[in-house]
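Late entry, written up from scratch paper. The run itself happened at the end of the previous shift, but nothing got recorded in the book at the time, so transcribing now.
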Amino acid sequence: MTPALGCTSSDDGEDDAADDEATESEDDGESSTDDDVGDDTTTDGESTTGVEPLATASGQALDDASAALPTPFFQRCGPIVDDIAQSCISFQADAEGLFTVDFPQTGVWGLKFLDSSGGTHTGNYFTVEVAEGDALELEKVVRVPIADALTTLPESGATDVPIEGGLTVTIDASTAQKTDFSAPTEAGGRQLSSEDWMFADTPAGPVVGMWTFYPAGVKAKEGAFEFSVDASLDLAPGTPVAVYEMEKNNIVLLPVAEGTVNAEGTGLDLSTVGEGLHELSMLVVADAS
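Output as recorded:
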């Protein structure tokens, strides 16, 4: 993932899925279950370390209707070393969604944008790389869209959850859990348009498709989520593709599938890579040619 797409440096410096996310702020996202993240998180955006920031980044986060989020839950996670964020700290936005986040160390940092109002917002996640003295200004608005056309999930049994843009994810609520360890009762998501992508590259190649999910961060307790993409994403038949999930605690892309655009040019023929799709935060498809 190429960090800090759309950033410039200046010299001067359903239950309540979103509420589930708010419970993460004490420790980093899910530190009660994940040992890879530090424990110096506060809910008011203040660092417990007392370290003066070496760099900053500023921007605006809005939903898909260009409205500020009702109850922003934003975190900076890092620095990211060997695909692990060393800690996560909350930061604030004003009534117009404007924010400035401080970085106490240089390096690559993950930024996490969610809402904790109890609504059906999805999430957005990306990285920035900062050097000492940087004052980055995000050129793009960070979009946190509201999920479209939620699908009700029974207590057990595989249920197809269609999401705009040709993506279908199959979820069995009995083998899935939200960030509060409860089973999801509904699910959905949104496709992000290319102008709202906060990064343009992956290890395999350029991004050609991106989706974000509600409830954010649902995980498979066993196995993996099956999924299909019935769209060519403007690629020619036979074009190789790579598919990634965003692991939201550490803000890293993990490979989950690979394949090609089918001969008819109507979808992707995919095979599982590694453990497959294990977390529903963000799904990214790249042109691997």
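The longest helix spans residues 17-22.
(Scratch paper discarded after transcription.)
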